[in-house]
Specification:
Blueprint (H helix, E strand, L loop, with lengths): L2 H18 L2 E7 L17 H12 L3 E7 L5 H6 L5 E5 L11 E16 L17 E4 L13 H8 L1 E4 L2 H9 L5 E5 H10 L1 H4 L2 E17 L7 H14 L1 H8 L3 E2 H4 L10
Parallel strand pairs: 1-2, 1-3, 5-6, 5-7
Antiparallel strand pairs: 3-8, 4-7, 4-8, 4-9
Helix pairs in contact: 2-9
């Protein structure tokens, strides 16, 4: 058999493999519990890794891969095309001047005020924030602060201690080192479920700091556009997999959350 005859089947096989290869889609992720925990680790956990695994299992046109970033570096990494899209974001969280495409995911969450239960303390404790010591998550955008995430601004105007852990903030509350923290509601519900004794010691505000609809933010001219991503989400919705994940991580469908619009922000 001549050499070119041997190479022909190999070339055809390589062409077939390339044609059938899934398009890589890089998804930015920073530590944001319960959406993703420790994205730089070998086995990150949370809603986002579970959702990407569901996308990959449901189809073969795209392969979704998690790319670690940080809460402050995510804008620069997006502009430098280090990843193609980021999920569970709000366009109001510092993205206003960055060219992007967006898709409402139909999933909602909120930030709520939390204090320690004490005799005589009730919902009126949350009426004013100006005279309280606050524990906040560094890099987060809070409604009461006009979505200004600058650390100096929060420290100067709201007597804030900034950390990178909801657990640390709740621990400071329980030890009376701060008066109020603002915690993602989905995370708080999971914390109460997993730590029932500590959960009983928390006073949770009836008012919300903000209720937000999560979005996907996509890089223009990336490998996946908003219409294509919407189609993949619809597939998970039809199979029931999306609802299962939303329920597991204590989230709400956006339609259900519309009745929970944020109350006027306390100052």
């Amino acid at each position: 058999m001549r050499l070119h005859q041997c190479l022909l089947p190999i070339a055809l096989l390589l062409c077939t493999c390339v044609a059938n290869a899934a398009q890589l889609v890089r998804v930015g992720a920073y530590h944001f519990p319960p959406y993703v925990m420790k994205p730089e680790s070998a086995a990150p956990e949370g809603l986002l890794p579970d959702l990407l695994a569901a996308f990959n299992a449901a189809q073969g046109d795209y392969h979704f891969e998690l790319v670690p970033t940080s809460v402050t570096r995510r804008y620069r990494d997006f502009n430098q095309a280090r990843y193609d899209l980021i999920l569970f974001e709000s366009p109001d969280w510092g993205w206003q001047d960055i060219p992007l495409d967006k898709l409402d995911l139909g999933i909602a969450d909120a930030e709520v005020y939390v204090a320690r239960q004490q005799s005589g303390r009730d919902q009126r404790f949350f009426d004013r924030l100006g005279n309280k010591r606050m524990a906040l998550y560094s890099g987060y955008h809070y409604g009461f602060a006009g979505f200004n995430a600058d650390q100096d601004y929060l420290t100067r105007n709201f007597n804030a201690v900034l950390t990178y852990s909801h657990d640390s903030n709740l621990l400071m509350l329980l030890h009376d080192r701060v008066d109020i923290s603002v915690v993602t509601r989905s995370y708080l519900r999971i914390y109460q479920r997993d730590n029932p004794q500590e959960g009983l010691q928390l006073l949770i505000s009836e008012r919300t700091d903000q209720v937000y609809h999560h979005h996907a933010l996509l890089r223009p001219r990336g490998p996946l556009d908003a219409r294509q991503l919407a189609g993949l989400l619809q597939g998970l919705q039809r199979s029931g997999r999306l609802a299962e994940l939303v329920q597991r991580y204590q989230l709400l469908a956006a339609s259900a959350a519309d009745t929970e619009s944020a109350n006027p922000m306390p100052r």
